[in-house]
Amino acid sequence: MSTVKNVDNQEYLSGGKADHGHPANPEFLQVKKTRDQIKQRVLNEFTPIGKIYDEEMTKNAMNPVAIAIFPTVHEMYQGAAKNRRKMIPPLPESCLFDIPNEFKLTIEKKKDFC
Fold it and tell me: Where is the sequence biased in composition, kind Polar residues (predicted)?
């Protein structure tokens, strides 16, 4: 930790990882847990982001304070879509390329082509 002086020349400790003397905010924990679940589903499924958001909000019973601070689907969409796009392989630059195995199956997990 380091010592910092404020305008009144009073010293106080700043920086470092000091122990907090208060319990974690349960609403923020609920929001973080639900956001992490939405993020994992967006990265692992091809379900529309809005539908994933609605399903997770319905599945996770949050209290009114947590719902009030939870971002809307419009606020989460851009970041979720950007993360999903990063997971999709780039388009091939020639006609000689390999298709990754997870993209060789249909939605019903049948091997229709390739």
Answer: 1-12
- 44's tokens: 């692992």
Residue 94 lies in a domain: no
Domains of the chain: total: 1
How does pLDDT run along the chain (114 residues), one tens digit per residue? 555 555 566 655 556 566 666 777 888 889 999 999 999 999 999 899 999 999 999 998 888 999 999 999 999 999 999 999 998 888 878 888 777 887 777 777 776 654
Cα separation, 81 vs 101, whole angstroms: 22
29 within a domain of the structure (yes/no) = no
| 6 in a structural domain | no
Nearest to 55 by CA among 69, 75, 40: 40
* pTM score of the predicted model: 0.62
Kindly state whether residue 58 falls inside one of the protein's structural domains.
yes
Q: Which of 29, 30, 78, 73 is nearest to 52 (CA)?
A: 73
Sign of CA dihedral 109, 112, 113, 114: positive
